[in-house]
TrEMBL record:
Name of the protein: AAA family ATPase
PROSITE patterns assigned to the protein according to its UniProt record, in alphabetical order: HTH_LUXR_1, HTH_LUXR_2
Ranges where the HTH luxR-type domain occurs: 854-911
The UniProt record lists the keyword ATP-binding: yes
Organism: Streptomyces kunmingensis
A Pfam family: GerE
Length: 911
């Protein structure tokens, strides 16, 4: 048969040729071909594959029925590359092996799998350029798509191309099932001239011109429609008869045309096609076994092949995915079930138990415990391979097939938990409703309440979550004391995020309830934390300090389990802030970050990075803090989640970057409206207060700081307390110190009880701002001494600044110059330019000439290059840097070459 020409695609082919040329030159490229069914996406994939003769080519064709099989697509793509797995770091190596079903000591973490796929593709591309093509990507299983989209977003210089073909969705696709946020090329119908040429090629001979025009108009230039619809048109239409235009969508008309074509085949040929449509792997041996069981012989297969609908070779391939869909849905429900049962019978339970269970489930006409139990076992295997979405789908189907009510409730509850973890809260809530269809004991109802509360917290972190968690804890208290106590600790955590609106009622009730449940002996670190926080909430900060310090020591113990650390270290770090314990905060923040990195836990990592970012800011290491804030965005972007912006907000406020700080501040304010995250506006107002104090705009600083604390009847630890400090400085500097008396009293209650140098220094500095004469000078010197014993360089520099300003105002200019020079030097070195400019203004007013430090070579580096320089200085390898920054090692190499050129160095040692 003559090969059909690739008409009307010159521009698309040029883009694909340019993509391949860029990859040949050492770059990486990603492209998503998006268009309606039949528009020619697959033909363009065939074109780019044919042009890539000097490439290694890896292909994936996704099938709708495999969407729930975890890493099915990744297995197609990466199974031939497993000889390179040894080049990956151990965690990534183990994760990818687990995802591919090659055996792993742990359930593969999705983040580590994604990192491993990025590294694996990069390694394979070292030998020769690599082209990966994914057809019908909208049907790829979620776990595989997340890994490939992750890799695609991080490609830079790996000699690698990823090309996806995706249908234009008729409705919003499920999260994670499409390569979103990547460069796209919309594939449209052919122009009229090319459509006419294709139509003449497909149907040579004399045709009425009116018919030609009508076919072109109705097809909208869709190549598949141009090929298929005329073949199936009624004779009156072919001869130029007049008829009403179809109002059916084009996709429906093409599929109906295939349905009619299939309907014209003999029964046995249709049965063969249905068997091929139901069997998604394209395995001929499996197809023949199922056909034999159904009594379908080879003659039926020949008739189906002769009709041009399917090809049987080393794989079974349909002419177009729409043919498979038409065949499947044209069959009756019983015909489909019967075929699924046959395929279940012939699928090897030892080598492919999950696909066998899935076929058996689709073959079941009603509830069937044996099939449901096999689905549950498949769900367990899917979870062991890290396929959370697949686990959820298998459990949800098992729920439908479970005849016993109590067992169905158990499975629905398990399915709801996993479905929530898979990122589908709506389905999780529907499954919880199934749990509630029958009578529930108090324990089960508590577990349902807890699941609902956790969904509410992760969905919006709003004010609803603390109350729901409180209710769940109350129901669980009589049945599972440890779980109830953990739930009450979750109330405290959720209330912090919810902000002042949820603080009082939720936390107070949780604290009272926690006191009614004695901690186990010996207590877990989380029990010590809960008891200490409960005492703070009920009896006040001073009474709680000893208990909270015991909790800090427990979390600092080397034997702390990774599970407990990952779950609670963020909250214990907030507690360390509340106790003004910078040393423990730094230690535990570093531990949290290491645990999150080692576990590859993408959900915990942004929060661990943010806490570590705060430590660097307090230490005056703004460059390091900025690098971590950038990494927060990198990790969140890589996995497609919303990133906490608080680290970046800290950095911009201390740097005095007004435009950036205000933009981030507005985004934090939006958190309340979008997610009910009431702590966002509190952090936003504190950051603006700090910014404006640095810039010397004290009235604006005072207004922002006042708003940050106004709604709290009892201050939460951390930012709300820091806002008091900004309010005191702003009012003291603006000439209205009397307004800050109440704020100073509230601050003193918290700092005196903690008694650390950090607390003592901040209190002394704040009191000095509101004092006069010898008492003020004594307090300024106390602040300098106390803060000088800490690593809090920014706060120490601020003490020098305000003391210098006070000395200048009292006419002691020589002493003022010394303090202001020290402050300016510190601020300038730390890149705290807002405060540096404030100090410079005071020095100029005293007749001083002010100079600033600069590093011209470093200023030429991009933010990413600065991150890499810092990590090289820490002694990390390219592979370790790549894992830290979510880049392939080859991209790190590429960045290093650029860095060497800009800085004029020739080695890592020189760097």
């Amino acid at each position: 048969m003559t090969q059909e020409p690739l008409l009307g695609r010159d521009q698309e082919c040029e883009k694909l040729d340019a993509l391949l040329d860029a990859v040949r030159g050492g770059e990486s490229r990603v492209l998503v071909l998006r268009g309606e069914p039949g528009v020619g996406k697959t033909r363009l994939l065939e074109y780019v594959t044919a042009q890539a003769r000097d490439f290694r080519v890896a292909r994936v064709t996704s099938v709708q029925s495999e969407m729930e099989l975890p890493y099915a697509g990744l297995h197609q793509l990466c199974a031939p590359m497993t000889d390179r797995l040894g080049q990956l770091p151990p965690g990534q190596h183990d994760a990818v092996r687990g995802a591919l079903g090659l055996g792993s000591a742990h359930a593969p973490n999705g983040f580590l799998v994604s990192l491993g796929v990025l590294g694996l593709l990069s390694e394979v591309a070292r030998d020769q350029p690599l082209l990966c093509v994914v057809d019908d990507a909208q049907w790829m299983d979620r776990a595989s798509m997340q890994a490939l989209a992750f890799a695609a977003r991080r490609l830079v210089a790996e000699s690698l191309a990823l090309v996806f073909a995706v249908r234009v969705p008729e409705e919003e696709p499920p999260v994670g099932t499409e390569p979103m946020g990547l460069p796209e090329l919309l594939i449209k119908g052919l122009p009229e001239r090319d459509a006419r040429a294709l139509l003449r090629f497909v149907l040579p001979g004399l045709w009425d011109e009116r018919v030609i025009r009508r076919f072109i108009a109705q097809s909208r230039g869709n190549p598949l429609a141009l090929r298929e619809l005329p073949k199936m048109a009624a004779s009156v239409d072919r001869s130029g008869g007049f008829g009403l235009p179809s109002v059916q969508p084009l996709e429906d008309r093409i599929e109906r045309a295939y349905v009619r074509k299939v309907g014209g085949l003999p029964d046995r040929a249709r049965e063969f096609l249905l068997t091929a449509a139901v069997e998604p792997t394209g395995d001929p041996a499996l197809l023949w076994r199922a056909a034999d069981r159904l009594g379908v012989g080879t003659d039926a297969a020949k008739e189906a092949v002769a009709a041009g609908l399917v090809k049987v070779g080393d794989r079974v391939r349909f002419f177009h995915p729409m043919v498979r869909s038409a065949v499947y849905w044209a069959a009756s429900a019983e015909e489909r079930r019967s075929t699924h049962r046959a395929l279940a019978d012939v699928t090897d339970p030892a080598t492919d138990p999950d696909r066998r269970a899935w076929h058996a489930a689709h073959g079941a006409a009603g509830p069937d415990e044996s099939v449901a139990a096999e689905l549950v076992r498949s769900a367990g295997r899917a979870q062991a391979r890290g396929g959370v979405a697949a686990t959820a789908a298998l459990l949800a189907r098992a729920v439908e097939l479970t005849p016993d009510l109590v067992r169905r409730q158990d499975r629905a509850l398990a399915a709801a938990r996993v479905t929530h973890e898979a990122g589908n809260p709506e389905l999780a809530l529907r499954l919880l409703s199934l749990v509630e269809t029958g009578s529930l004991d108090e324990r089960r109802r508590g577990e349902v309440d807890l699941a609902r509360a956790r969904i509410a917290f992760t969905s919006d972190r709003g004010s609803e979550a603390p109350g729901l968690l409180l209710k769940a804890g109350g129901r669980l208290a009589a049945y599972d004391a440890a779980l109830a106590r953990d739930t009450y600790l979750e109330v405290v955590n959720a209330a912090i995020f919810a902000g002042p609106q949820a603080y009082d009622d939720g936390q107070y009730e949780a604290a009272r309830a926690a006191r009614a449940i004695p901690a186990p002996q010996p207590p877990r670190p989380s029990d010590l934390l809960l008891d200490g926080l409960a005492e703070r909430i009920i009896d006040g900060h001073t009474a709680a300090v000893p208990g909270l310090r015991r909790a800090l020591r427990a979390f600092a113990e080397p034997g702390l389990s990774p599970e407990e650390g990952l779950r609670w270290l963020w909250l214990i770090c907030v507690t360390a802030v509340g106790l003004w314990d910078h040393e423990t905060m730094s230690l535990l923040g570093a531990r949290h970050l290491k645990l999150a990195r080692d576990a590859g836990q993408a959900t915990a990592l942004p929060f661990a990075l943010t806490m570590r970012c705060v430590v660097h800011v307090l230490d005056g290491e703004l460059a390091e803090a900025a690098a971590l804030a950038e990494e927060v965005q990198t990790v969140a972007e890589a996995v497609g989640t919303a990133a906490p912006i608080y680290g970046a907000l800290f950095v911009s406020a201390w740097r005095g970057q007004e435009a950036e700080c205000l933009e981030l501040s507005e985004r934090a304010d939006e958190g309340l409206e979008l997610r009910g995250e009431g702590v966002g506006p509190v952090v936003s107002r504190w950051a603006r207060a700090l910014l404006y104090n640095g810039l010397g705009r004290y009235e604006e600083a005072a207004r922002a700081a006042d708003l940050a604390t106004r709604e709290y009847s009892r201050l939460e630890m951390g930012i709300p307390v820091w806002a008091l400090v900004e309010y005191i400085e702003a009012t003291g500097r603006s000439g209205a110190p009397g307004q800050a008396a109440d704020a100073l009293e509230r601050l003193g209650e918290l700092t005196r009880a903690s008694g650390t140098d950090w607390a003592s220094g901040i209190e002394a500095r704040s009191r000095a701002l509101l004092s006069e004469g010898a008492r003020a000078e004594r307090l300024y010197r106390q602040a300098l001494d106390a803060l000088g014993r800490t690593r809090l360089r920014g706060e120490s520099a601020r003490a020098h600044l305000v003391y210098g300003e006070w000395l200048s105002g009292n006419g002691r200019h020589h002493e003022a110059r010394n303090q202001l020079r020290t402050a300016h030097g510190l601020f300038d070195t730390m890149d705290m330019q807002g405060f540096a400019q404030r100090a410079a203004r005071e020095l100029r007013a005293l007749g001083e000439t002010v100079t600033t430090n600069s590093d011209d070579a470093a200023s030429d580096l991009t933010a990413k290059e600065l991150q890499i320089v810092r990590l090289v200085r820490e002694g990390l390898t390219n592979t370790e840097i790549g894992a830290r920054l979510v880049l392939s090692p080859r991209t790190v190499e590429w960045h290093l070459r650029n860095i060497f050129g800009k800085l004029g160095v020739t080695s890592r040692k020189h760097l």
